[in-house]
Amino acid sequence: MADQTNDNNPGQIVPTAPLIMHVFPTFAVGGAQVRFAMLANHFGPAFRHIVVSLDGMLGCRERLRPDLDISFPVVAAPKGAMLANTLRFRRLLHEWSPALLVTNNWGAIEWAMANLPPVARHVHIEDGFGAEERDRQLPRRAWLRRLVLNRSTVVLPSRNLQRIALTVWRLPAGRVHYIPNGVDLGRFQSRPAPREPDDAPVIGTVAGLRSEKNVSRLLRAFALVPPSARLTIVGDGPEREVLQAEAQSLGISGRVHFTGHIDNPAPFYAGFDVFALSSDTEQMPLSVIEAMAAGLPIAATDVGDVRAMVSAANASFVGTLSETELARSLAALLRAPEIRAQIGAENQAKARAEFDQATMFRAYGSLWRDEFPPETA
Predict the structure, then answer these.
(1) Which alpha helices (DSSP H) does 17-108 contain, by range?
(2) Residue 336, Ramachandran bin (φ over 0: left; ψ between -120 and 50: alpha; else beta)
(3) Which fold has domain 185-354?
(4) Would you say residue 90 has pLDDT above 80?
(5) How far is the C-alpha of 164 from the C-alpha of 126, rounded, in Å?
(6) Stretch(es) of the chain classified as CATH 3.40.50.2000
(7) How would you classify the pairing of strands 3-6 and 202-206?
(8) Is the domain defined by 3-182+357-368 classed in CATH 3.40.50.10540?
(9) Are the beta carbons of 350 and 311 closer than 8 angstroms?
(10) Are 93 and 115 spatial neighbours (Cβ–Cβ below 8 Å)?
(11) What are 122-133's pLDDT values in tens digits?
(12) How far apart are CA 260 and CA 307, in angstroms?
């Protein structure tokens, strides 16, 4: 790494913090982007960063500490120009000379290709797939991942993704590492405000309003539960107007609250009685971990690691991609406050045991410093 002189003592050489380059298909707010913000904020001046957002969106930038040494160069990535993109990206890698290149998901695969043969140490993180790979891996993509990532360090936040990397992409076991996501558990453990006995129970979700989150399924399920309940949808996105219109057509708009974008959704969890996840595709959603940390029971679609993430008692409320089954789970939890409390306590205990951010910080700190063990469980 490059060194610099100490202005107070010109004879002293001060090592420059390692430069890490992160490539995201988008830097809009999402699980991978929020995790990076948590890590960058935690390590502060220990690292310098370049963040490339391939679609130019930088919504998650607002979550970063203002004192970070971080830049956001604009890099065009035309569709259908893989070879030209790869050659141009390789020139940029030589120009910027990062100590570590971190690529995120399939959308950044051209940068992984640009690093062959290696210009920098490479880590690829795969958080999940789009709708086109929800049910099965596309053969061309699986083959290209196998070829390009064979000598890279590959990090997966879910056991399901780890299985795919080993059995479908056929990557070497010593290159594949499971690092579960973590959260600041204390932020989600605030006590709810006192409720009157006849207050309506609240179902809540925290999600980007995009097609893969399928909040439409949640609205249809909510229309089937007892009319005494209310629904709070925390988040924003391109489908908001369509979802609001659907709530109107279902006759439930008076019981549904769309909060819009919220910088810090943590306080909302304290006002929920049940957390709902209605996604078509997930792997290890941060929102589920946050709900567990808040001591909530969860009604969810059976996607990614969700069933394994929640407590054993909660697993029966994780079902198929069906609004009727989601409605049954929601209704069963709404009518049983004692079961809600028991499951919520068990979820909270599991979150403390498995999803504390401190564990995630240690793992990624070792990864960024090139101190990561050659193989993990």
Answers:
(1) 31-43, 82-96
(2) beta
(3) Rossmann fold (3.40.50)
(4) yes
(5) 11
(6) 3-182+357-368, 185-354
(7) unpaired
(8) no
(9) yes
(10) yes
(11) 999 999 887 777
(12) 28
